[in-house]
């Protein structure tokens, strides 16, 4: 079931800061740190699962399975990238029901043409606003719980300007979206302009090296933003750490000098993955298992 805490936080005018997670190691680490929500990033999940660019190659089946594994493996509510809804109106209904059944609390649907592209990359094209508004209406009707949030994203800013992006955001709000996501505003002034026009909770995408400036949470809140995601911070950090570690291993021929041994021990990883529970189970049942009669030899 979706967590009611996110809808309640929005109702209470609170701010939700969500780190990007992309596999179960990143999800488990973030889950224990007290965040209000986690953001299951389409870029990161596609990269970690398929090793491919986030350009619409990952299917609904690929994504709902991975997003469900993350959601069910965490106590923290999960906001999930659901791309374009993977097709037309019937696909959108199927997507909403599938992600909700998978344990996700909120999904992001975007108005790009298929195949979609990552939001901070060039070449994105959008469908007519009226078509997307209909998708949002279908999505809002398809959910089983009101605690399942619909986040409507428009990618119109880059190709069609801020005014068109705001117009679309207002349309999607009227269609029933709970949260509005204007992708890729290019300055703090543009972000503030979005907040002056759209009065529903706003969603900020903070991508290191992306098209939008990184703005602190208190300033975002003052502009009207209520959710900020940091989708890339996890996988950029991990990729950099791996590159350094593997490079040192290749250069030294051993791992004795690696700082990773001190930063995150094997024992700590075992604890994160739940090995203490397995060991306790083994201790509890070892005597009973040892007293089982031997198997009879085949006659």
UniProtKB/TrEMBL annotation:
Keyword annotations of the record: Lyase
Gene Ontology MF: a single term: oxo-acid-lyase activity
Keyword Lyase assigned: yes
Pfam families registered for this protein in UniProt: PEP_mutase
InterPro entries: ICL/PEPM, Pyrv/PenolPyrv_kinase-like_dom, Pyrv_kinase-like_dom_sf
The UniProt record lists the keyword Ribosomal protein: no
Protein name: 2-Methylisocitrate lyase, PEP mutase family
């Amino acid at each position: 079931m979706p967590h009611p805490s996110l809808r309640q936080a929005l109702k209470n005018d609170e701010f939700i800061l969500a780190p990007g997670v992309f596999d179960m190691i990143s999800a488990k680490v973030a889950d224990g740190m007290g965040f209000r929500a986690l953001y299951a990033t389409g870029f990161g999940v596609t990269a970690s699962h398929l090793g491919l660019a986030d350009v619409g190659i990952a299917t609904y089946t690929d994504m709902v399975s991975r997003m469900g594994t993350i959601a069910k493996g965490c106590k923290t509510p999960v906001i999930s990238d659901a791309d374009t809804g993977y097709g037309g109106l019937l696909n959108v209904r199927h997507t909403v029901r599938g992600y909700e059944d998978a344990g996700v609390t909120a999904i992001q649907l975007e108005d790009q043409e298929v195949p979609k592209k990552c939001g901070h990359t060039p070449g994105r094209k959008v469908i007519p606003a009226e078509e997307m508004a209909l998708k949002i209406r279908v999505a809002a009707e398809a959910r089983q719980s009101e605690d399942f949030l619909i986040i409507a994203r428009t990618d119109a800013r880059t190709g069609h300007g801020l005014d068109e992006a705001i117009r679309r955001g207002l349309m999607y709000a009227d269609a029933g979206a709970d949260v509005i996501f204007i992708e890729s505003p290019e300055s703090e002034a543009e972000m503030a302009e979005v907040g002056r026009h759209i009065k529903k909770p706003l969603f900020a995408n903070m991508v290191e090296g992306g098209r939008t400036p990184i703005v602190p949470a208190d300033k975002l809140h003052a502009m009207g933003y209520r959710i900020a995601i940091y989708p890339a911070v996890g996988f950029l950090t991990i990729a950099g750490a791996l590159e350094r570690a593997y490079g040192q291993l290749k250069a030294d021929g051993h791992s004795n000098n690696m700082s990773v041994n001190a930063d995150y021990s094997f024992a700590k990883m075992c604890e994160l993955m739940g090995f203490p529970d397995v060991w306790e189970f083994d201790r509890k049942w070892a005597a009973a298992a040892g007293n089982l009669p031997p198997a009879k030899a085949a006659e």
